[in-house]
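Weekly puzzle thread! Below is a chain. First person to post its structure in token form gets bragging rights.
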Amino acid sequence: MLKTIKTDFDFSDDRGTIVQLIHKGYSQINVITSKKGVVRGGHYHKRNEEAFYIVSGELTVTVNGETAHFKARDFFGIEAYDMHSFNFLEDTVLVSMYSYGVELEDGTKDIFSE
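Winning reply:
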């Protein structure tokens, strides 16, 4: 299930902004850049729940056949076992967070496409 997530806090003043995404709960955090026209995903995770914060750009996300549109400053999550793919409509920078991490203790990866 695709879900919208509220940031912990979002502060702005003359100097700029601070957006606190989380303060606990994720084991792996990545910054991803993707070019316009790229499609990523086509997989699911058995262990991991994921959260994504869009720093800049625009994309559509398809989860279990449902498609949603996201842009800069949107924050959303995907639950374990949900098949998902991303279609980047612009050059995009996003932060991805995994509840456990994709690389498992036994050396396998929590990424499945079947």
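Puzzle host: Confirmed. Bonus trivia for everyone else. The chain is about 0% helix and 55% strand.
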